Amino acid sequence: MQLGMIEGDTAAPDLSVRHDGPRAVLTGQLVVWTLHRLSPVAPATPLDLSALDRLDTAGAWALTQRQAAGGHLTGLSPRHAALVAAVTAALPAPQQVPSPLPWRRRVLEGTGRRVVGGLAYLRELVEYLGRSLAALGRALRRPAQFPLTALVHHCQETGLRAVPIVAVMSFLIGVVLAFQGADQLRQFGAEIFVVDLIAISILRELGILLTAIIVAGRTASALTAAIGSMKMRQEIDAMRTLGLDPDMALILPRILALVLMLPILGLVSALTGLFGGAVMSWVELGISPGVFLGRLDDLSIGHVIVGLSKAPVFALIIGVIGCHAGMRVGKDAESLGRMTSAAVVSAIFAVIIADAAFSVFFARIGL
Description:
Blueprint (H helix, E strand, L loop, with lengths): L14 E6 L2 E8 L16 E9 L1 H12 L4 E2 L3 H13 L12 H39 L6 H11 L4 H23 L8 H39 L2 H7 L4 H40 L3 H9 L4 H8 L1 H17 L5 H33 L2
Parallel strand pairs: 2-3, 3-4
Antiparallel strand pairs: 1-2
């Protein structure tokens, strides 16, 4: 039995439709050339097909559509019924469109998905932190395997090349703090306390925080771009094939360079910020450098300890996020750009969250 037609016939096909009460009686051939004869009949009208001589797949499809619209088919011969059944089985199943969820449920579902995604992202970051620490342990056991040249190179790129922008930024921050503080404290005759304002703000918070933000924007993007480009070119797969450890060769030197250089950059930031504040205090308030240094001597060394103790943690956060984003780059340039921007945003956000946690912690312990 052919699906195209049941019987061969060289005569021109014809179909007649006769109404017998509520039903329509079809006589002749229901094929692709006679489907238009069936159009005037309402879809829900019962059809009597006992006098039908010929049926092809187009006619069988038209009958299935009428069945779906509520029409009844009677008088089908076994051959015609088999063809209709075959066409019905070949039709694609209708897609069930789910009803829209209530807005409260949509909000809860979206929030839950974001929370789960955030926890999964945090788990991946902890995994990369563990991998870097494991690589450090292997390097301590076998120092010959540690890429010292790569560490020196990344220290130069991360630390030395970032000194100018960090110094200029901190100098201007000190100038702004001194100018704004002088403008406010002059109203109460307490201009001398602008030194305390500058020193505490820069040493405890702004110096290391702004330095970490600059390094996050500068270095996290560089880490993602460098490692992501190697992943796109399948260089990391080639390293594994050659028996090289990507954690030891790529991740550990970059993270360790950040841990070593960020405290130094934080110290540079603090010194240049204090210098900028001292210059503006001298110009705006007439506070001489000697008086400025004298007020600094009265401050607790704890402010310096608090500020510099944050640097290694910020460095770990920036390095882990940048390396993780680089290893997640796909095979196209679009993913490289997407992961680079995501690494910068995530690193800056994580640094700010960590700084807030440090502030609460040091306030609790009274430091």
